[in-house]
Every structure is written in C-alpha cells, then in structure tokens.
Amino acid sequence: VSAPPAGAPLSDAASGRMLLFNRAGALFAMPADDLFKGGVQNSVAAASELGAALSGPVAASLLADGGVAVSSASVGAKALVAGKTGPRRWLPLPDVLGAPAVAFHGGLLAPGKLGQVRVVDPATGADLVQPFQPRLGRGPEYRWSTPLVMSNDELLLADGDTRLYRLGVAAKPEPHLTPVAEAELKGPLAAPLAVAGATVYAVNGANELVAFSLGQGGAKTLAAGKSWPLTAPVVWGPYAAGPHVLLATLDDHLLACGDAQNTLWQVEWKHGPLAGTPLLVGDALLLPTKSGQLCKLAAASGDVQGVVELGEPLAAGPVALGDRLLLAAKSGALLVVTMP
C-alpha cells in the first residue's frame, strides 16, 4: 500500500473486505479472498486519496451503514467518510478534533478541542444526540484521549488533564450524551485506556498504572481501585487481549494485568520494541515487534513459546483472517502468515 499503515486492517464481515489506510493518505478496500493468492500483489482495488497526511493517533471505524470513517486530530475539523458503495468524502465537523473520531451510537463520535463531545450523522454532520460539554474552568484546548467504546451506548474518555469520564446516551428529556460516572487522574494520561472485564486501566501523569472499577450487577461506576508505580515510562500499550491488559515499559519489561485489578505476570522482554496490538488465540498471545518478529507467549505466564521471523519491520496487526494472520509492514507491504 505504498506507505506505512496508519493502523491495523479492519475486517468488514458483511462485505468480505479488508480495509486498510496508510499515513500517506490512501484508503484501500481489498477482497479478503485475494489475500490468500500466491505471489506479490502490486495493485489494490479502490484506492482513495485523502489529500492530507495523517500523523499522531489515527482511528478508523466501521460505520453502522457498512462504510468506514478515518480521522486524526492532525487534519483539523473534518473526518474522511467512505460509504459502503459511494465515493469517499470529507465530512466537516463543528470543531477541530481533540482526538480521533470513532464510530458510536450509529454515528461518529467527535471530541472537539474546545471541549464539546458530539455524536454526528456520518452522512450529514448533524448531531444525532445533544453533545456533552464538560465543566468550564480549565485550559483553552482539550487534548482528549482516543475514545474507548464499550458498547453502542457507553464509552470512556479522558480530557487531557485530570478527569476520566464514562459517557452514556440518556433518552430524556431528549437524547443527549452525559457522564454516567467520573474519576480523577493524577495528570494527563500517558498511554491509551484499556478494559479487561469490569476493570479499566490507565497510566496517569505520575507514571502509575491505575485501575478503576466499572461496577458489578448493573451498577455503573468509575471507582478508583489499585495502583502500581511503574519502573519506567510506558512505550507500548496498555492494550486489551481477551481478559488480559498488556503493556511494555522503557526498561524492557512486559506486564499483564487481569480483570480483577490484579497483576498476572511480569517478564523481562528481550525481543526489542513492540509494534501493533496483541492478539489472543486460544491460550497464547501473539505480539509483533518493530524489527519483524511475531512472538508467541503463553497467556498464563508470559513465557515465550516461539518466535517467527517475518523479514519485514512491522507496524500494525496481527489480525485474524481464518486460520491465517494479516500484518502490515512499515514499508507498506501486507503480510499473510500461517498461524504459529
């Protein structure tokens, strides 16, 4: 795909396509069956030029109508929307994005730099529900975290300062986005949010891994729980993989936490910087490295069970594709490999 990918490929089960976008500004739609053909494929169907390079955090989401939206705070007050069958187009947004926009509640959730968090119709840009406006009294711009969608009606979002919000859609007096619960952070998040079971993990400004309870038995909370001081800054993760949340630190440690605010294991990591996101397959974790290795770990212990040399520096994936894996190389190549 000619340039480094801007995220992992998306699988559109309804159409049988794989969707991939790169940081040079192109969106590709590929029939999944074509990826199993032998040889090098130098052309991909339906390349859509964005006309703007994507930098920083980028998000791509499958929309309710089968289309896809791609966005980054680096491109201003707009998101690219490509319909399932129609042409792609820029969707104007009410405010410059303070974080990538993601699919939510049948629309596109757009956190703005001025503070409002909106859910807009991908076709028209009109509000689907009334926006959320945090309390005033902080800096002029919001640097929101990438939204973490938990369901069609709830998500987690940090404001780039000291507040973590659990936002939901309330029906009365008219549909609106509202905080279901809030929590205080020690400074801006230093890494993405990740959820395992009823626990959300965050790395706060004090370089601590902090757990918050999402509640049990129908209760919806953000209750502060256990915390762990980290020995070095986080350089990868936290990422969810089944009931695990994984992160790696600058001093070459890999840590796994569970869904009960517990540390499952911590191991010394000897395979270099990690890339992409982890994938849980059965009782094993698959982790890609920037240098081009795919490492298989025992999920229960973190022990390395095998390493596959792929011969290409990696940037994203792996994504399960039947009994194969799809990974994106830093060069722009797509790699289809046998499940280790």
Verbal overview:
It is a single chain. By secondary structure, the protein is mostly beta strands. The chain has strands at residues 10-12, 17-22, 26-31, 48-49, 58-62, 68-72, 78-82, 88-92, 102-104, 107-111, 117-120, 127-132, 148-149, 154-158, 163-170, 176-184, 194-196, 199-203, 208-213, 223-229, 234-241, 244-249, 253-257, 263-268, 279-281, 284-288, 293-298, 304-309, 314-321, 324-329, 334-338. The strands form eight sheets. It has a four-stranded antiparallel sheet with strand order 1-2-3-4, with no helix packed on it. A hairpin with a 5-residue loop joins strand 15 (163-170) and strand 16. The radius of gyration is 20 Å and the shape is globular. It starts with 9 loop residues before the first strand and ends with a strand.
